[in-house]
Amino acid sequence: MTDNITGKVVIITGASSGMGEATARDLAAKGAKVALGARRTDRLDALVNEIKAAGGEAIAVATDVTKLEDVQNLVDTAKETFGTVDVIFNNAGLMPLSPLDSLRIDEWNQMIDVNMKGTLYGIAAVLPIFKEQESGQVINVSSVYGHKTVATGAVYCATKHAVRSLSEGLRQEVKDYNVRVTVISPGAVNTELTQHITEEGLGDAVRDAVSRIGVPATTMADMVAFAISQPANVDVNEILFRPTVQPE
Ligand SMILES: NC(=O)c1ccc[n+]([C@@H]2O[C@H](COP(=O)([O-])OP(=O)(O)OC[C@H]3O[C@@H](n4cnc5c(N)ncnc54)[C@H](OP(=O)(O)O)[C@@H]3O)[C@@H](O)[C@H]2O)c1
Questions:
Q1: What angle in degrees, to the nearest 10, is found between the helix axes of 218-229 and 18-29?
Q2: Which residue of 123, 146, 184, 214 is 20 to 30 Å from 166, comparing CA positions?
Q3: pTM exceeding 0.85
Q4: Ligand 1 pocket, mutate which of 95, 144, 156, 161 (most atoms under 8 A from CB)
Q5: Atom of ligand 1 nearest to the CA of 114
Q6: Catalytic: 156?
Q7: Which is the catalytic residue, given 121, 145, 156, 177?
Q8: 64 touches ligand 1 (CB under 6 Å)
């Protein structure tokens, strides 16, 4: 499984909790050099220390993915530190669900800025490097909600549909210079994601449902490792996974 992972430089956004954190820990244990971005740098620093103590290589870079300059700095710092960039895992995301008529417009904007524009900024920051070296892999995070739309999830679903759409467009455009594009769509995973739902009555219901059936964040780490570990001429374009008992 560690074939084609050892020695690779992997940038991970949203590495301070949940699936980003679990993936960072797993890839570092498999010999990848990981560059970790998020806003909560205390958490990133603790994870870097843990990875280093276990013999791995990692750096932490304060990153707000809504700022192109922050994402560019994350990528540039990874390249300066480790000499190259092989993979970006555009994982940072937010899911403050609410009905549209609650008019939580600040939360709509946050989701568009983090889930969609943050992913685009990650792509923008690595593409010149990947084009020049004629190799690389972009791994974007969509959702089951990038395949279907549900009430209270109109904006979140729209951002996750957008991630799938731009991933397929990217794939078609960069295949000629040997760049792989993967989009991973999780179902319910036990992380902090549901903590940001402010809509009264909805947050507790969603948190209860996810905590009952959600799979651990390490499930995503397994998917990412599978996609990276394929031979360079194999591009795993889409992975959709759910807890076995998830109804929809
Ligand atoms: N959990 C699920 O059931 C599920 C299902 C489908 C899809 N997903 C997707 O999976 C991805 C990971 O989420 P998770 O479930 O692991 O949730 P999580 O534990 O809440 O992690 C989200 C991460 O995103 C980061 N983030 C949020 N805003 C950011 C910003 N402006 N700049 C940089 N980083 C930011 C957070 O870091 P800071 O707050 O420290 O910046 C955190 O590390 C998201 O894209 C989410 O939409 C999750």
A1: 50
A2: 214
A3: yes
A4: 95
A5: 31
A6: yes
A7: 156
A8: yes
